[in-house]
Recover the amino acids of this structure.
């Protein structure tokens, strides 16, 4: 029996999608470009812009798996945020003393509502524009061009960071603390200090969340709205949120954290809304491949997230390597596909 997606295709694309979903290099862009660059049956089987393509059902499964991996990685943070949300809802009927209206009180309550607020614009845009964006822009050459543009966006974020030298100086203490996590990991591991390490990581996460909520509701909304650009294949969701956060005054580390927290509900919601594609006719003949690809994608996403959290915990690490990658691959792919 012929399957429109083979198991080798499912494994390769699943791994690439899981990793690139978290790296600021656009998973959708790679999902479009890899099959086109390989050519042959890959280009035929894995065409995201084709009408009634089973590849869409495959991508749905991978997105859900990636979101689950992100939630597992940040499970302690999500417990705090969810508790904060329900705590804030419980105070709706009884505003805090000294105030005339309800408002979130704790850091967790404010962060929960900031994430909800930031999710609204991309949710509306996704429902209204996803089909058109996929149909008209999810072609290999436009995708390659958008990937190169993504590289320029990442470079602009680094330019802004260097211009904000005073901000980096004010946060040098926090940056050194974040950088110490990577070094402490090895020491704690050898000294059987896993509990102390987890407590330190939790403390640093709380400190980062306190800095995040200080940017305010409007800035949080703008960070969420920036994700609309990621509907264009080649533009990274995490990359655009990081750069927008840096424009709004966040350090690279805090901007990365917010992008990771914000991505999970957005990706999960998008995947859940598309599950009918997987359970319907589009999923016929590919559900086994979807399962295999999703497992590979989820594992890849988890380890990619582990790497990136440590990578961005070092204040000396930048977005420049990812920008160069996007420029080289984007421009090179556009030239290759055009010829």
């Amino acid at each position: 029996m012929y399957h429109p997606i083979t198991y080798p295709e499912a494994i390769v694309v699943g791994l690439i999608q899981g990793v690139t979903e978290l790296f600021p290099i656009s998973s959708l862009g790679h999902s479009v470009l890899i099959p086109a660059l390989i050519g042959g049956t890959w280009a035929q089987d894995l065409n995201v812009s084709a009408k009634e393509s089973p590849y869409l059902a495959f991508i749905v499964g991978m997105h859900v798996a990636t979101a689950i991996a992100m939630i597992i990685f940040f499970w302690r943070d999500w417990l705090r945020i969810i508790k904060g949300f329900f705590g804030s809802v419980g105070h709706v009927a009884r505003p805090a003393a000294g105030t005339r209206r309800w408002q979130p009180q704790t850091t967790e309550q404010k962060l929960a509502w900031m994430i909800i607020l930031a999710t609204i614009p991309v949710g509306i845009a996704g429902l209204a524009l996803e089909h058109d964006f996929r149909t008209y822009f999810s072609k290999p050459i436009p995708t390659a061009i958008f990937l190169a543009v993504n590289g320029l966006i990442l470079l602009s974020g680094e330019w802004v960071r260097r211009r904000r030298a005073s901000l980096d100086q004010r946060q040098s203490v926090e940056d050194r603390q974040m950088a110490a996590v990577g070094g402490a990991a090895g020491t704690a591991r050898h000294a059987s200090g896993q509990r102390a390490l987890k407590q330190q990581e939790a403390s640093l996460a709380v400190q980062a969340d306190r800095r995040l909520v200080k940017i305010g509701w409007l800035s949080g909304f703008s960070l969420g709205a920036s994700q609309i650009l990621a509907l264009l294949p080649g533009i990274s969701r995490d990359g655009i949120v990081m750069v927008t956060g840096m424009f709004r005054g966040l350090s690279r580390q805090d901007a990365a954290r917010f992008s990771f927290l914000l991505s999970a509900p957005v990706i999960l919601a998008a995947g859940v809304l598309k599950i009918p594609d997987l359970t319907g006719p589009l999923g016929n003949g590919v559900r086994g491949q979807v399962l295999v690809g999703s497992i590979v994608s989820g594992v890849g996403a988890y380890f990619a997230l582990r790497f990136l959290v440590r990578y961005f915990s070092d204040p000396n690490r930048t977005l420049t390597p990812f920008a160069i990658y996007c420029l080289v691959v984007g421009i090179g792919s556009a030239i290759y596909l055009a010829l």
In short: Residues 7-333 form one domain. Residues 178-191 have pLDDT under 50 and may be disordered.
